Amino acid sequence: MDTATGDRPRVTITYCTLCNWLLRAQWMAAELLNTFGTELGEVALRPGTGGVFVVEVTSADRKESHRVWDRKRDSGFPDIVTLKRLVRDVAAPDRDLGHGEATRIPIRQPHRRGILMTRHHPAARDLLIDAFGRVQELVVDITDGLSRGEATYRPDPEANTIAWLLWHLSRVQDDHVAGLAEAEQAWPQWRDRFALPFDDWATGYAQSAAEVGQVDVEPHLLREYHDAVHTKTLEYLNRVTDEELERVVDDNWDPPVTAGVRLVSVINDADQHLGQAAYVAGMASRAGVS
Q1: Which ranges of the chain would DSSP assign to H, the alpha helix?
Q2: Above 50 in pLDDT, residue 182?
Q3: Lowest mean pLDDT among 37-46, 90-99, 253-262
Q4: What pLDDT does residue 107 have?
Q5: DSSP characters for 177-228?
Q6: Which residues contact 208 (CB under 8 A, 6 or more apart)?
Q7: What does the alpha-carbon distance between residue 11 and residue 32 come to, in Å, rounded to a whole number?
Q8: pTM of the model as a whole
Q9: Mean pLDDT of 216-241
């Protein structure tokens, strides 16, 4: 046993590889190491499947292991402040986390569309990462066990399908985040696999009911594309600063729209479409669609 690290608690983060949660696990591991430093013997990443995301803390003597977070048990992912506190309570109970003991919330001026004001950018970054993570988690949940028939089910001829809703919200996120990051979209690597009869860069905006019905693909493809979009989103968010969030990206509004507000708009759009998708899924189930 390495005497330099063997007498200290260790943390293990088990993450779902098929869900594309490696970047999330890496980011949480880095945050724990930055906070606790040599108080931890190691922070290990362990690949898994089946939507697993579990954080365990093993005592220094290796006799006890505490599961401080389980995505399925605890209904989602932890925010980083909560995770640090849970790890601290087991690994270093006497440690003071300072400002991290308090709930960190971005300071926002009310009723000022276009401006996101923060005094401590990691809190805003953490909040955005958590919000986009919840979007990705819901995409995984909705597509889990979803049949192609359910994905294309329409309660009436004009209704949106689950397939279109998930494709559309992913395309909007891909397009908007890539624009903010000044990076390539994930879509070119997925366009041929979807083989949709639309313009190469279509996002679904203002499409007709007939076009909605043309999004007919296997559900796993919808999840995998969104996973790729989520990975690119995390790459951008992990380097977000105060200055970036306050950068004006659209001056056609009064006040102008900042990068921070654009991100909030993407989250809001995704949440609305996910709610619709979940509702249609319920209707498909009650209708006996398979």
Answers
A1: 22-36, 80-91, 121-143, 148-151, 162-181, 191-194, 209-212, 219-237, 242-245, 259-286
A2: yes
A3: 90-99
A4: 32
A5: HHHHHT---SGGGTHHHH--SS-TT---TT--HHHHTT----HHHHHHHHHH
A6: none
A7: 9
A8: 0.64
A9: 93
Question: In which residue are the tokens 């919000």 written?
Answer: 131
CB proximity list for 199: less than 8 A, separation 6 or greater? none
The CA distance from 148 to 194, in Å, is 14
Calculate the CA 178 to chain-centre distance: 15
Interatomic CA distance for residues 209 and 185, integer angstroms: 26
Cα distance between residue 178 and residue 183, in whole Å: 5
Q: Tell me the C-alpha distance between 227 and 140, whole Å.
A: 9
Mean pLDDT score across all residues of the chain = 86
Determine whether 61 is exposed, middle or buried from the number of CB atoms within 10 Å of its CB (0-12, 13-18, 19+): exposed
Q: How many residues are given for the chain?
A: 290
Distances, alpha carbon 86 to alpha carbons 36, 56, 83, 176, 239, in Å:
12, 10, 5, 34, 25
Nearest residue to 142 (alpha-carbon basis) of 267, 266, 275, 269: 275
Only one residue has tokens 């597509």, namely: 143
Stretch (H or E) spanning 58 = strand 53-58
Kindly state the tokens that stand for 7: 């007498």
